[in-house]
Amino acid sequence: QVQLVESGGGLVQAVDSLRLSCAASGRTFSNYAMGWLRQAPGIERDFVAAIGWIGGGTSIADHVKGRVTISRENAKNTLYLQMNSLQHEDTAVYYCAARLGRVAILPRQYDYWGQGTQVTVSS
């Protein structure tokens, strides 16, 4: 069992930056690939970025490449998503997710989910 708690969301303006955090607890953190997925109103949850905790490797969605970096701090069991140059279309609930093994881009491939943190870009 893995527990995930996101933080760092908020209301920002276009071109602002935001750093989301995901604190993990429970099972050994390094055994899990982790990702950030988001869900905007009326749209299904989709992939933003993921990082492998076994063997490394990252994956970032095309529509956020160049603006988003995903990272981890193993000693803190914490996952981060740095988002720069935020745009209105980035408005969504951002979820931290985890799964055993390799990185994945489909929501159904993830086993554990946080409660989500709202990111709203006003302009």
- CA-to-CA gap between the ends? 39 Å
Beta content comes to over 45%
Q: In one word, what is the shape?
A: globular
Number of helices: 0
Total strands: the figure is: 11
Order of helices and strands: EEEEEEEEEEE
Backbone CA Rg: 13 Å
Q: Are there runs of 5+ residues with pLDDT below 50, and where?
A: none
What oligomeric arrangement do these chains adopt? single chain
Helix content: under 10%
Structural class: mainly beta
Q: Overall pLDDT, averaged?
A: 92
Q: What profile does the largest beta sheet have?
A: 7 strands, mixed
Textual characterization of the structure:
The protein is mainly β and 123 residues long. 0% of the residues lie in helices and 51% in strands. The chain is built from no helices and eleven strands. Strands 2, 4, 5, 6, 9, 10 and 11 form a seven-stranded mixed sheet that branches. Strands 1-3-8-7 form a four-stranded antiparallel sheet, with no helix packed on it. The mean pLDDT is 92.
Spell out the key features of this protein.
mainly beta, 51% strand, 7-stranded mixed sheet, 123 residues, 4-stranded antiparallel sheet
Question: Gist?
Answer:
This protein has strands at 2-7, 10-12, 18-26, 32-39, 46-51, 58-60, 68-73, 78-83, 92-100, 112-113, 117-121. The chain is mainly β. The strands form two sheets. Strands 2, 4, 5, 6, 9, 10 and 11 form a seven-stranded mixed beta sheet that branches.
